[in-house]
Amino acid sequence: MKIEVKQLTKVYKDKKALNNISFSLEEPKIYGLLGRNGAGKTTFMEILSGHILPTNGKILINGENPFDNQKLTESICLIKEGNNFKGDLKIKEILRIYSYFYPTWDQTLAEELVSLYNLKQNAKVKSLSKGMESALGIIVGLASKAPITIFDEPYIGLDAAARKLFYEILLEQYEQEKRMIIFSTHLIDEVSLLFEEVLIMQDGKLLMKEDTDQLRDRTYAITGTREAVEGFIHDKQIISKKGLAGMMTAYVYGDRKQARKNDFQVEGIPIQELMIHLTEEQRGA
Ligand SMILES: Nc1ncnc2c1ncn2[C@@H]1O[C@H](COP(=O)(O)OP(=O)(O)OP(=O)(O)O)[C@@H](O)[C@H]1O
């Protein structure tokens, strides 16, 4: 699948939720779509899924507009934070409905996951706890095997063990058959190892789109005495710096070999930290 985002803008009354963004996604990868509250992530995913129209610009999937386009929407599965399913339906009915909708649906996987998550096929959605309802969303997203599967903060109420199970199955399924998975979450530390590429949004703009390994290679954290670190970073591009009791840690762009030569303590920067500091840097600018 090829997703082309061209000068995409969405305005709600006086709020520009998306502000003229352009990029493309071509490979079956696990993409992390990150950003602070209100950055525009959900709006982007809703347009991509063909649920809402942009104000200006467009998204093309394999050259076509996803809005009102069943041929395309049966290749896209969006699992939202909540309210994915009608309350009066039973779990087994939901699985049946989705099996009709998605040509790639895997009923065996769906049933396996229903029992792994201890759900009852005859239970109605309205009788489920928040976590159970999230589990059902995850099951549908995984079993859809849709070539574009989108999870928008899909696990409200799910405990840590249930989330871990989700990551494991997601990865296992992805390894068996690669597809485009777009994953938006605020629990970045937990999932960042799954991401092959990250997209960071800020105030309706795309701040960064980069391969995770490359991002890890071109950023690092150094710690040392304040004087030594200040001396080292004065000609470097800095993401942030923080001093405490005569010591300092700085997040830096560049090749970490030079820092190693200087006997600093050198480490990678967790993606969550990067996201926080990049979006702060931008806000302050
Ligand atoms: N239906 C709507 N009507 C009016 N404003 C909206 C609507 N949907 C979103 N917005 C506004 O557009 C902006 C982007 O919202 P969006 O939900 O896309 O952000 P987000 O990155 O998904 O945020 P979060 O991480 O909090 O879910 C916000 O300022 C939000 O208030």
Characteristics of this structure?
285 residues; alpha/beta; Rossmann fold; six-stranded mixed sheet; four-stranded antiparallel sheet; 11 helices; 36% helix; 30% strand; binds adenosine-5'-triphosphate; ATP-binding; ATP binding; ATP hydrolysis activity; ABC transporter ATP-binding protein
Quick rundown:
The protein is an alpha/beta fold. The protein has 11 helices and 13 strands.
Largest sheet: 6 strands, mixed
What gap, in angstroms, lies between the N and C termini? 36 Å
**What is the CATH architecture descriptor of the largest domain?**
3-Layer(aba) Sandwich
Please bin the fraction of helical residues: 25-40%
CATH topology grouping of the largest domain = Rossmann fold
Strand order of the largest sheet: 5-6-7-3-8-9
Number of helices: 11
Low-confidence stretches: none
Radius of gyration: 21 Å
Strand content: 25-35%
CATH-defined superfamily of the largest domain: P-loop containing nucleotide triphosphate hydrolases
CATH top level class name of the largest domain: Alpha Beta
Number of structural domains: 2
